[in-house]
Design brief:
about 190 residues; mainly alpha; about 75% helix; transmembrane helix; transmembrane; membrane
Length: about 190
């Protein structure tokens, strides 16, 4: 195992950093571009989502209150009166009237559940929009830093001729005669 010099270690580390930066930019740049597209922008503002969430929660609570007080509200109070009036109950049929009342309460319950689910979805959408906005900002920052670092690495490569082809700057101690290394100097 040969010992490497500090210069060799720094050059190897420089090449590895260049490769790492390019690999990370290949991953992050399409993501940053995708986050800048209109499809990834916020659909609704946070204030609109908060208002929608609050309204749906209030309506679901109102639906519960409506279900509790339904027998006192005019059109629905007729169902209660019909159930307790023997002539109407016999004309319609007690089982049919019971099913009608149960179906009415079930529709109100389904409406309350739907409103509650919509409120929860608005909350989740608002929280995910915040996370998406923060991720977009952070990725843009990271990509900007990587682009600055890549520009600095390229400047150093150009200044010292450290290209991809492996061309190394030649020092006086390592100068060789290029004619002796060529297979056929006539070409």
């Amino acid at each position: 195992m040969s010992l490497t010099t500090l210069k060799d270690d720094l050059l190897a580390e420089f090449r590895e950093e260049r490769i790492m930066i390019n690999d990370q930019l290949e991953v992050l740049d399409p993501l940053a571009t995708a986050l800048r597209r209109p499809a990834a922008q916020r659909l609704l503002s946070s204030s609109t989502l908060i208002i929608a969430e609050f309204t749906c929660y209030v309506l679901s609570l109102g639906g519960i209150a409506f279900a509790v007080l339904m027998h006192r509200i005019y059109p629905f109070s007729l169902l209660n009166k019909a159930l307790y009036t023997p002539d109407v109950r016999n004309a319609i049929g007690a089982p049919h009237l019971s099913v009608l009342i149960a179906a009415t309460y079930a529709l109100v319950a389904i409406g309350v559940v739907f409103l509650f689910v919509i409120a929860r979805m608005a909350r989740e959408l608002r929280l995910k929009n915040d996370i998406l906005h923060m991720a977009c900002r952070d990725i843009k920052t990271i990509v900007g830093q990587h682009l600055e670092r890549r520009a600095a690495v390229r400047t150093i490569e150009q200044r010292h001729m450290l290209g991809l082809s492996g061309v190394m700057p030649v020092t006086d101690a390592t100068k060789v005669n290029p004619v002796k290394e060529m297979a056929n100097a006539g070409y």
